[in-house]
Amino acid sequence: MNFETSHRPNPWAKLAAENWDAPFIVTTTVRLVESIFGNSPSATRRLHRIANSVLVLDEVQALPDSLLTPILSGLRELVEHYGVTLVLSSATQPELSALNPWQTGLPQREIVANPAPLFERLRRVRYEWRTGPAVTLGSIAAEAAKHTDALVVVNGTKDASHVHKTWLDGRGESPGVLHLSTRMTGGHRRETIQAAKQRLEAGLGTLLVSTSLIEAGVDLDFPHGFRARSLPESEQQTAGRINREGHRPTEDSVLTVFEPTDGLQPQVIYNRSGIAAASRRFGKDLAAPDDLDALRSYYQHRYQLQAGRSSTDPDGATGEVIEALREKLDYPEVARRMRMIDNERSVAVVVIRSQLPHKDQQAARNAIGQLRDGVPTPETYRALQDHMASIPQEELETAIGAGHAVEIVGDLYEWTGPYHPRRGIEPPK
Question: Which pLDDT band, with edges at 50, 70 and 90, does 6 fall under?
Answer without folding.
Answer: very low
